[in-house]
Amino acid sequence: MDWWQAAALGIVQGLTEFIPISSSAHLRIVPALLGWGDPGTAFSAVIQLGTLAAVFAYFAGDIVRLGIAAAVWPISRKPTLRDDARLAWAIAAGNLPIVVCGLAGKDFIETEARSLYLIGTMLIVVALGLAAAERRAAMNRTVESLGWGRIFVIGLFQALALIPGSSRSGSTILGGLLMGLKREDAARFSFLLGIPAILGSGIYQLRDLTEEMGRGSLDWVGHGSLDWVGHGSLDWVGLLAGLAAAAISGYISIGFLLKFLQTHTTGVFVIYRLVLGSAVILLAYGGIVR
Question: Residues 88-106: pLDDT tens digits?
């Protein structure tokens, strides 16, 4: 993978990680259509660290406030910190389902789950779920009103994101809507809930990716100059280019989605997912993409 291919996939990752159309599906589909080959689960997980940087930048105030409350409240018991501390610890607990499912299903996630037929199917399934939630969910709660039980249920929906095509933001927003959150709050909570999952997955897979890349070496090349030569299909320049592209495009997509959901439903994403899912299944069935 050349650095510009990694950067292009970083842009794809950043634009589709937070918009509920599945970044993992696009990271599988786009390279297949361009004939680049499957970048693999390790690259897909590590490149999310770029979008995680976008979350930290965009929600810096919320993250600092929740982190301080979680650390200080158990000692000080200040009433003003109680709600933030409860939300912070509930977010941590809400990530247990995706951790357990991710470790238990690691082999399936890295192999059979990357089937284009399954990706297309999950694009459609979550689209239908979002459509149903838009029709029946109350959508009258805020993030701060969520209890541990509702957050854990949303965490169960987040675990669906382990299957490419589900979309971590899409499945988590779906869970949030079903638990009564307003659309914008469901999106905001999706970003906050995803911090531990994205961080853990990225760090866990970083080891595998660096081993695949090879440690590289300093070799003499050309006119006696010293250069870094990697031994894998991706070098550090490519990885950093992908991470930077994902961070920039991710920051843009966060702002877009939060503003969009203030005045719109998720209907346009439902339609996009239905069309894309159907197209992926047909293209895979016809042997056009593999």
Answer: 998 998 999 999 998 898 8
Give SS3 for 217: strand
pLDDT digits (tens, 9 = 90+) for 180-198: 999 999 999 999 999 988 8
Residue 276: C-alpha distances to residues 127, 147, 240, 269 (Å) = 11, 35, 29, 10
Task: List the structure tokens of 285.
Answer: 């069935």
How many CB atoms neighbour CB 180 within 10 A? 17
Q: How far apart are CA 16 and CA 9, in angstroms?
A: 10
How far is Cα 94 from Cα 108, in angstroms, rounded to an integer? Answer: 23
Q: At what angle do helices 148-158 and 79-94 cross, to 10 degrees?
A: 30
CA within 13 Å, CB half, 47: 34
CB neighbours of 183 closer than 8 A, spacing ≥ 6?
139, 173, 177, 261, 262, 265, 266
Ranges of residues in the chain whose predicted pLDDT is under 70: 212-234
DSSP symbol at 143 = G
Q: Looking at the DSSP assignment, which residues form a beta bridge with residue 181?
A: 141
Structure tokens given for 15: 């634009």
